[in-house]
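Lecture notes, unit on protein representations.

Consider one protein chain, 329 amino acids long.
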Amino acid sequence: MRRREFLGVLVTGAVAWPGVASAQQQQRIRRIGIFMPGTADDPEYQARNAAFLLALGALGWDIGRSIRLEYRWGRGETEHYRAIAAELVALTPDVILAVGTATVRALLTVTRSVPIVFANVTDPVGSSLVASIARPGGNVTGFTSVDFAFAGKWLELLKNIAPRVTRVAVMRDSAIASQMGLFGAMQSLAPSLGVELQPVDMQGAADIERAIVALASEPNGGLIISSSARGILHRDLINALAARHRLPTIFGFRTGVASGGLAYYGTDEGGQFRRAAGYVDRILKGEKPADLPVQAPTKYDLVINLKTAKALGIIVPPALLATADEVIE
């Protein structure tokens, strides 16, 4: 079976993993809700979903035998998240995996009792998702992605690869409060790097195109694309425009660089979802989210697209290449 076909099967949940669940697990099928902010056919979310399901299988859960999966996809339309959350909660899942701050906030408007495990959330305390990192306290716990200080590393990486850049458009989803914090962290560092920042709210394709064309109207521009459902949805458009206008790009999600961006630096996304499966397993076996501490990333990945660098006439410093986890040639 080809990899794309295999991932497609994982998304539908129509595969039974080898291994036998315990007798207690076999007494009834447990239901897991999965709320992803993107689309089912997107390779970014397919890869995250695959990591989650593989980890569940390794823990002895068999899809269709001991667990049933209920998917809901946000398609980046945050205005509809509450309705999607209500629909998912109405299915009475035993636990929900929620990806990103916006999905968790939507779920909390309709339930304070169904256990929720999150992945890829920035600042869960500041976003009022949990009471504290060590003792979440309510029905929510999970795994954070980058913190605010990390955003400065995107700016430093861009300047390291493309030193001539002095104007940077930061593409974000203003509906996600934590993305404002990430931008603020970059703002505090920008003067020391000789960079002027321009925030760009990604509402749709037309907004993105206007912003990139405006950035390219003057020299020495660059792009930083924060991780969000809208950024992932429009990554091909962003990369096409960046290539046309010869703009270096730093992405906050892996498929951005895989589809033509210059570099990615961020959380080991597969690791996030494997660890999330561990928390789902523990909750299904009786533990409470309130007692499971929120955990920070344990590994970060640097991916550099050398093909894109050559097309832009950029020579990536050898020392930086040597530290990359992956080089796309």
